[in-house]
Fold:
Amino acid sequence: MFITFEGIDGSGKSTQIQLLKEWLERLDHTVTVLREPGGNVVSEQIRQLLLDSTEHIEPRCELLLFTAARAQLVSKVIRPALKAGHIVICDRYIDSSVAYQGYGRGLPIDDIVRINDFATAGLIPDITFIFDLTVDDAAKRAGFRSNDNKTKPDRMEQSGDAFFERTKQGYIELAQNANRNIFIIHAGDSMHDIRDQVETIVGRFL
Ligand code: ADP
Ligand code: TYD
Structure:
């Protein structure tokens, strides 16, 4: 089973992924947790380029780099893990490209879907959770607006509030248009409430 978590930065995805992993392992499942971009040597190198670069990266180049990292991850790690019977949980997947590069940067959605279909050879998640939170609350949680400046925003996080508003809205629209198992989670709820919702939904698919 392939499960993906989506939502703007700071919406609480990693927290719930960890809780879901622990729950599934208590039920004796083997779980592989991955993050995008990353999860293998080549994709982590592409991640550095995408997040740490001080150079301007053109939207089309950005899309292709995220998608290239995904192609490597799918082929090298996700498909083998699924074949071995693992439950694979991925922190972001194709919907991030649709939301960030499509709705956020303004690239055509159809092209993004087509390029990603090629890159992943058609691998689609069994379950997707979209964490919906206001841009303001997410930024506060992610810490990149705090005065102490402990957390320095990465290149994507420097894209501004209007970009994240479009991205957040993009997630809602893509969920409404999709013909697969996508669940919108009200990410302003408590960690425990969200954990219960996620476990109930995943439990139905086990
Ligand atoms: P993401 O992976 O989406 O960037 P995180 O899981 O890292 O988000 O969460 C960002 C911050 O918000 C963390 O400090 C985390 O402890 C906190 N957090 C996560 N979920 C909740 C929640 N439901 N309520 C309040 N704070 C939360
Ligand atoms: P990361 O720190 O992993 O995300 P988060 O802050 O949610 O924990 O950073 C990944 C960044 O890359 C994040 O800003 C979303 C962005 N991204 C895209 O723009 N397109 C994509 O296809 C993917 C996978 C990520």
